[in-house]
Structure prediction request, 349 residues.
Amino acid sequence: MTAGIELRSVGKRYGDARSPLAVDGVDLVVPKGTLTTLLGPSGCGKTTLLRLIAGLETPSAGRILIDGDDVTMLGAAERSVCMVFQSYALFPHMSVADNVAYGLTVSGVPRDEAARRARQAMEGVGLAGYGERLPSELSGGQQQRVAVARALVLEPSVMLFDEPLSNLDARLRRAMREEIRALQQRLKLTVAYVTHDQSEALAVSDQIVVMNAGQVAQAGTPRELYEQPRSEFVAGFMGEAMLFPATLGDDGVVRLGPLRLPSPPTGARPGPVKVAVRPEAWAPAEPGTAGTLPGTLTKTAYLGSQQELTVATEIGEIFVVSPDVARPWTVGEPLALRLAGVGISVVGE
Prediction:
């Protein structure tokens, strides 16, 4: 698949040679027409990487290619790239239409043509008829759409989003992430998207890149990263996986307390390993059921569509999410746990 964005051994250091690398030897391909999310904790280098792609920072090492062209030494204005910032960065004194058309007018596009293209862009994000309003007269979601329209009107090869939904409430955030994803797929845009929200990354991405300390910890599809994390860091960061010490026997069976897991990673060697288990992978069972882990219910919380349980067991306290909200749960009652076939991964020692 053709690369829309390609990073080759890209590094970025602020300060002298004694300063740590903010981005350390990153190799990354964003296929053309797809959406890749850069995910990671604060300070992992994801926003720095986005600014390097945008041309707002110059790499200390490596090369950056957009649609096959080397843009490493080009400034932001010389790249066919647009960035949607966390703050939206709208001009408060200008109308919505003027905000959207701004990039065209400063580029010398005739006023009538700029206005026509701005109207098309606003229609594309559901803002037809809002052209005369000021940003202060719009909701947070509408302001976000203005920022997207202002980028789209320039017809960039690549669009970059830097935590675009962090200023929105939870309900609007969900609606807007669906709109961004639908727009990206409809227009076949090449998008790099930064967030620290795992559920947001899972919902919008073709590819997720988990970053840690300036490096790529793992890259892959949302399903691959959630179900097959290759390290403790990725397993712990993607969702609420709990890590348990276990043993991989010569027979290829992983032993986790009294439980047996016949799915070790390819190439794993017998000996100590770590098992990452998602809360939804545990299923309550009747005490004494064969092949289960006995325990005692210590905490319970009803959340409407699901029940959260904390169960004390011989391998430690286990956090469980159960869809069984009809059953009455009583703290102190004996409870056994069995493992489903998904949400379990062996990540090594």
Residues 3-227 form a domain with the Rossmann fold fold (CATH 3.40.50.300).
